[in-house]
């Protein structure tokens, strides 16, 4: 109480003194003045300088004039004061513990570091607002200590409107590696860099789930968020600058480079349903190396508990003993079980991570410096498959082991490591950057609480199912030079790159895949839940790539910038690609600039897509079906007439405005169109053809012991159009500082045409006369195509409002997730196709309060999803949508289904045990959390 009284008294006394001085017309003669300039020597006009008198909370502000000067007159003597300086395109500077002498003017000249970009340009002095293409910059030092998310993919999902990532469930490996999307594109159509160098992809191909099906992406959660200084998201094609994959854009993760200080970060949280407990301990430390070098280290340990959302098991979908209601009731009673004993885990997988990262730079001379950075991540993941139950898979029940059924666990051990080493040489006016990057991602599956039912009572309960390994080596050399007197400044860069990729499928132990024929008749071979990799499906393949590029960026005048990039690449397995990019920015007025870009791009087929092959267990209500995913070199693919994969080719056009009416307010609007030809998709699922139209394929499937097959194929030409809007406002309000930002993305993808092999064209007639997809089990199935067009939110908005006052900060964030539409799975596969689901727009709200009791300590308490908003479950989404194509209503379809199949329709699939799909937004509901950050060295 004494401390509270003292603070209140100090506040009232300060206000009284100021009012007395003003009322008497007396000037204290005490003032703050000075200048603000950039580290490049330019004066900064319109910079905001704020002086905060901490005892009273009184805040006085000024802006710099045309000469970069500012003055704050008639301020209270004494202190302490905090002085903050901000200017768009520069890093905010804070001066603390300032005391003023009565009657004197104190001069504070400020030099602000330029917030330069490391992505989208090879100039070292280009700022965000000067960029000819849109770039989002996320300051991780400010954001990480206050928001509920700690893993990087989810943190970006709630920070960047054009970025999407949702955790998958019951999707095999995708439960453990979050797929990502930028501007509605596939996970593998964006490029990820760390400190400007290419990061390797994961070994995993997304085969199930709702996002990125058939694609190979990046595992962003191997990167420690606490190791990052900032994240730059380039929202424009940049393949000509950086190479394959950069169709939708580039994300560059810049590591911390401090040579002193550090922090300790603690985080914990839990959903209000009582599950999903999380915990994170992260340590960061900067060390000095020599006079000018540094070593920055980060270590993490984090845990995320599994989640399950309530449901009611339905006899039409997933009964335990029988599809007959009376028999089901009787056998449940005889077993002494209830449906509660067969709870399906249907949310987030349990995840444990250990991470370590480093960033090092050591100058040897003024002209030579060595740098290195990298990291290691070990992840242990525990997910589940649907229950194996007597009603749907009696042949796979072994009474002596699991008499009433079992829920297999799909577990992973992921080892991810990367390291980069290089030198920067000053060669006169030129700079040479030579680097070597090595990355490796290994994912091994072990399946527990399961059995190989073909072994009967002799079966073990856990198996090593094998795994996947991807290794990438990149050698790079880049020459660059700024010609300051060529036009108004011209930067020239050129260089070359050599990349070597290797992909391996490692076979599992024999029991994970082999058919021993010792169980019941009809018993399935291999581990239930996830069949292991057969040695016949093991593979070890490599690829080489050589590239050369040239990049010129010229300021034609001080107000007009033009850039161009050319790139040639040659791949050892599919040939060459030549692409280019041109962009421009024109300052029309002090507060208005326009920008535009056009580029061609490409994405080489991932080596994983070229080589991957596996038998997959598809969970249907009739039991597991063996679906073979065969690569394009297989006998099955040749029998189907599937050719070798070709690279995707793109054309990207963008145009935008940059409006800065005041130093406190910025607004950008960027429209874009992305055309992609020969887009690589995963085909539909095909079984034995009873019409005799595909005899060679039938024979190949029988030889491969597969019920049906899928392939990767260059199948679609698409067009994506969208609009990005970003507005930021930062200014004084009352005694504190107000920060408001609004980011929005509006996105639409349409299929322009499909490419179907001759013997499948009778299955795929593209669209009806109304423009709707044709029904049935097509060569490219309904779900895959609908996810391509409408599987990402049609719009996404993020409104963030923060208010800082003295030792307190409040952050309110609102998120709008637009509509998502897609066809359901077609596991059986039904000739009628499946239902069409519409997930309506949803809005969620986050709220947090931070308190800084001392300068070095920040404490935050918050609620994620305050109002406990859930996406539509799949039954609601089905009612929002429509019956399978060709049927006017669900009643008509259900009557047809009952007559044809002799049982009620169970569509949408798994509507009871897996009530949500991971497309639009998280479905864990409300989450409460606590965060503490102690900063060392303040």
From TrEMBL:
Gene3D superfamilies: Carboxypeptidase-like, regulatory domain (2.60.40.1120), TonB-dependent receptor, beta-barrel domain (2.40.170.20), TonB-dependent receptor, plug domain (2.170.130.10)
UniProt subcellular location: Cell outer membrane
Origin: domain of life: Bacteria
Main location (coarse class): membrane
Molecular function terms from GO: carbohydrate binding
Keywords for this protein: Cell outer membrane, Membrane, Receptor, Signal, TonB box, Transmembrane, Transmembrane beta strand, Transport
Residue span, TonB-dependent receptor-like beta-barrel domain: 400-866
Signal peptide coordinates: 1-25
UniProt entry tagged with the keyword Flavoprotein: no
Membrane topology: Multi-pass membrane protein
Domain named TonB-dependent receptor plug: residues: 129-250
Keyword Transcription regulation part of the UniProt annotation: no
A Pfam family this chain is assigned to: CarboxypepD_reg
Protein family per UniProt: Belongs to the TonB-dependent receptor family.
Protein name: TonB-dependent receptor
């Amino acid at each position: 109480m004494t401390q509270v009284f003292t603070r209140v008294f100090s506040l009232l006394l300060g206000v009284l003194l100021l009012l007395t001085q003003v009322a008497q017309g007396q000037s204290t003669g005490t003032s703050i003045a000075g200048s603000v300039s950039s580290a490049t020597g330019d004066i900064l006009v319109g910079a905001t300088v704020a002086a905060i008198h901490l005892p009273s909370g009184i805040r006085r502000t000024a802006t710099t004039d045309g000469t970069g000067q500012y003055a704050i007159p008639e301020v209270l003597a004494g202190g302490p004061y905090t002085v903050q300086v901000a200017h768009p395109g520069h890093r905010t500077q804070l001066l603390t513990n300032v005391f003023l002498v009565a009657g004197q003017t104190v001069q504070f000249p400020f030099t602000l570091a330029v917030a330069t970009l490391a992505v989208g340009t090879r100039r070292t002095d280009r700022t965000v607002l000067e960029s000819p293409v849109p770039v989002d910059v996320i300051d991780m030092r400010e954001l990480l200590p206050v928001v509920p998310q700690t893993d990087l993919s989810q943190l970006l999902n709630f920070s960047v409107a054009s970025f999407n990532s949702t955790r998958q469930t019951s999707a095999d490996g995708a439960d453990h590696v979050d797929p990502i999307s930028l501007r509605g594109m596939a996970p593998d159509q964006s490029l990820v860099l760390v400190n400007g160098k290419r990061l390797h992809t994961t070994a995993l191909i997304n085969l199930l789930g709702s996002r990125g099906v058939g694609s190979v992406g990046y595992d962003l959660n191997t990167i420690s968020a606490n190791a990052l200084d900032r994240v730059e998201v380039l929202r424009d094609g940049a393949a000509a600058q950086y190479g394959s994959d950069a169709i939708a854009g580039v994300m560059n993760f810049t590591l911390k480079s401090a040579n002193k200080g550090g922090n300790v970060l603690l985080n914990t949280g839990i959903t209000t349903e009582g599950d999903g407990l999380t915990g994170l301990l992260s340590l960061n430390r900067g060390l000095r190396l020599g006079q000018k070098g540094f070593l920055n280290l980060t270590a993490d340990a984090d845990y995320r508990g599994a989640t399950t959302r309530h449901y009611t098991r339905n006899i039409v979908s997933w009964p335990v003993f029988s599809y007959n209601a009376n028999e089901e009731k009787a056998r449940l009673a005889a077993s002494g079980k209830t449906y509660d004993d067969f709870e399906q885990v249907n949310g987030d997988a349990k995840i444990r991570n250990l991470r370590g990262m480093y960033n090092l730079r050591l100058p040897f001379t003024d002209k030579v410096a060595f740098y290195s950075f990298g990291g290691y991540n070990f992840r242990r993941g525990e997910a589940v498959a649907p229950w194996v139950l007597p009603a749907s898979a009696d042949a796979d029940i072994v009474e002596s082991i699991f008499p009433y059924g079992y829920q297999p666990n799909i577990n992973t051990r992921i080892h991810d490591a990367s390291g980069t080493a290089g030198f920067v040489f000053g060669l006169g006016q030129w700079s040479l950057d030579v680097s070597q990057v090595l990355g490796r991602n290994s994912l091994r599956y072990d399946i527990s609480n399961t059995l190989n039912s073909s072994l009967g009572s002799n079966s073990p309960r856990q198996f090593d199912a094998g795994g996947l390994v991807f290794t990438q080596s990149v050698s790079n050399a880049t020459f660059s030079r700024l010609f300051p007197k060529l036009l108004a400044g011209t930067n020239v860069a050129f260089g070359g790159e050599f990349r070597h990729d290797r992909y391996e499928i490692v076979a599992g132990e024999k029991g994970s895949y082999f058919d021993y024929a010792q169980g019941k008749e009809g018993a399935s071979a291999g581990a239930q839940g996830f069949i292991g990799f057969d040695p016949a499906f093991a593979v070890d393949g490599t690829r080489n790539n050589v590239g050369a590029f040239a990049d010129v960026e010229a300021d034609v005048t001080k107000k007009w910038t033009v850039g161009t990039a050319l790139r040639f690449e040659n791949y050892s397995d599919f040939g060459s690609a030549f692409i280019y990019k041109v962009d421009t920015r024109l300052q029309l007025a002090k507060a208005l600039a326009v920008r535009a870009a056009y580029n061609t791009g490409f994405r080489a087929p991932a080596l994983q897509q070229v080589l991957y092959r596996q038998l997959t267990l598809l969970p249907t209500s009739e039991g597991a079906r063996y679906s073979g995913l065969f690569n394009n070199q297989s006998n099955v693919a040749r029998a189907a007439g599937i050719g070798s994969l070709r690279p995707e080719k793109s054309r990207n056009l963008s145009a935008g405005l940059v409006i800065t009416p005041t130093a406190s307010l910025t607004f950008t609007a960027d429209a874009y169109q992305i055309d992609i030809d020969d887009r690589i998709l995963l085909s539909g699922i095909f079984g034995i053809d009873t019409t005799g139209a595909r005899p060679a394929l039938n024979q190949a499937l029988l030889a491969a012991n597969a019920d049906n097959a899928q392939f990767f194929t260059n199948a679609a030409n698409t067009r994506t159009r969208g609009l990005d809007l970003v507005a930021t406002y930062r200014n004084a309000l009352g005694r504190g500082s107000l920060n408001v930002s609004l980011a929005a993305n509006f996105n639409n993808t349409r299929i322009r045409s499909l490419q179907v092999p001759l013997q499948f064209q009778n299955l795929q007639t593209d669209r009806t006369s109304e423009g709707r997809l044709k029904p049935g089990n097509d060569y490219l199935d309904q779900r895959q195509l609908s996810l391509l067009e409408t599987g990402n939110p049609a719009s996404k908005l993020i409104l963030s409002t923060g208010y800082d006052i003295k030792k307190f900060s409040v952050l309110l964030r609102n998120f709008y997730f637009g509509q998502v539409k897609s066809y359901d799975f077609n596991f059986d596969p039904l000739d009628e196709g499946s239902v069409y689901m519409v997930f309506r727009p949803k809005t969620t709200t986050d709220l947090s309060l931070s308190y800084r009791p001392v300068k070095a300590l920040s404490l935050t308490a918050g609620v994620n999803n305050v109002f406990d908003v859930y996406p539509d479950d799949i039954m609601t989404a089905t009612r929002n949508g429509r019956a399978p194509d060709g049927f006017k209503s669900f009643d008509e379809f259900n009557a047809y289904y009952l007559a044809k199949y002799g049982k009620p329709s169970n569509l949408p699939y798994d509507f009871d045990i897996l009530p949500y799909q991971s497309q639009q937004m998280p479905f864990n509901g409300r989450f409460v959390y606590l965060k503490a950050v102690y900063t060392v060295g303040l």
